[in-house]
Design goal:
The strands form five sheets. The chain has a seven-stranded mixed beta sheet, with helices on both faces. It folds into three domains: 7-142, Rossmann fold (3-Layer(aba) Sandwich); 162-390, pyruvate-formate lyase- activating enzyme (Alpha-Beta Horseshoe); 396-456, OB fold (Dihydrolipoamide Acetyltransferase, E2P) (Beta Barrel). The protein has helices spanning 37-52, 76-89, 101-104, 106-112, 127-135, 180-184, 192-204, 228-236, 258-267, 284-290, 296-309, 328-341, 367-390; strands at 7-10, 28-33, 56-57, 66-71, 95-99, 117-119, 139-142, 162-166, 168-169, 188-189, 209-213, 243-246, 274-276, 314-321, 345-350, 396-404, 410-413, 419-422, 439-447, 452-456. It has 13 helices and 20 strands. A hairpin with a 5-residue loop joins strand 16 (396-404) and strand 17.
Amino acid sequence: MEKVNHLSTFSNPSPILPFQNFTYDKKRVWVKAFGCSANIADSEIIKGILSNNGYELTHTRKNSDINVLVTCAVKDVTEHRMISKIKRYSEEKPLVVAGCLPKTSKNLIESLSPNSSLMGPQSLDKTLQVIDASLHGQKVVALEDSMSTKVNLPRLRLNPIVSIIEISSGCLSECSFCQTKLAKGTLRSYRIGEIVRQMEDDLAANCKEIWLTSTDNGCYGMDLKTDLVDLLENCSNIEGDYKIRVGMMNPMYVPRFLDRLISLYRDNDRIFKFLHMPVQSGNEKILQKMKRGHTAKIFVDVVREMRKKIPEITIATDIITGFPSESERDFKETLNLIEESQPDVINSSKYSPRPGTVASKYPKVGTSIVKERSNRLHDIIKKTSMTRNGMWNGWKGEVLIDEILDNGKIQGRNYAYKPVIMNLPGNQQFDPKQILGHYLSVKVVKVSNYSLFGESIS
């Protein structure tokens, strides 16, 4: 197969897709996304483009004529899940593998599913060509990055009241363990005016919860001589009834606008009091090996300043256990950092080497050691989360209902983005979806490490 640069279509003189009962007239597409909120947003754009061009979206794979997987490549466990699905789905009907994995592991995917089409995370403008060709038995590889942005594109939302707006692509980091840079490249911020127009359109479509997301919100605007706070000021000045959830930002960029960010968070009711700032380790030597670009002190100092001015703010962070060369002493420094900073939410993962990264060449820590440390970390996570959630027991206030749970209950978010789970209020003889996007006055009556549990008081 010849090398491709931007978009190439490969046709086999004989049919390459041995599927039975295949129909082209209905053009039903099943799209499924895995991984981060940016991947969810990409899947919404793919569905929006297809829907606007005469394709029918189906909720079940068995009813589709073609399947699209928006993949994630952040961990080896996730990659194994993706590989299993790619192998299984490609045996059923035409398959398009989109997302990060085609960019980071193209040869692997082609060895497992040689007839599947590939589409990268920055190639969504090729969606129609890829789907149409794949439906007609042709393989397409579209992995070159497009110059178009991902704002103001048609989209079909997974949750009708949640607008996921990607504010930039790529990042400025060089983390030694991460494949995301390999998939998404360097930072390219989208202009504030474009993001504001997208948000205005989404609010007009009845969205109530706006997620501003990217690979790293902290470095947003550094290529445009602006920053995240400028963007948030513009977005929060839009008329309407909504809340903004600010996505992940790496610690090293926060000090340059920390005072302005604190003032905005404290004084603006349209922004959730929520900050996701991955620290990954509490040991300086390990952070240097990770090439994180920040110190543990920077993380702790930012948390301390935020909590000083906004004590109830929800702080989320990420921890990697068992990074190459991590000693017991190094790990204990991570536990000490958690004790000192008391994050509300800690996303923990065991280190897994990712192909093409610098850290994949480092000697690994023993599996049994990593498992034992991970168990200890989970114990302290439960304790810390329970302590922070316990502060909300008995709290009364408004929550924005943003999810209908599988067990028939509903979930809302309070002003600090804490999830509050409750029963449907009053007479339950109505479609629960009717309550999405509405506010309820609640009282928190119980807490767990993960959630608050409330009762409606209005």
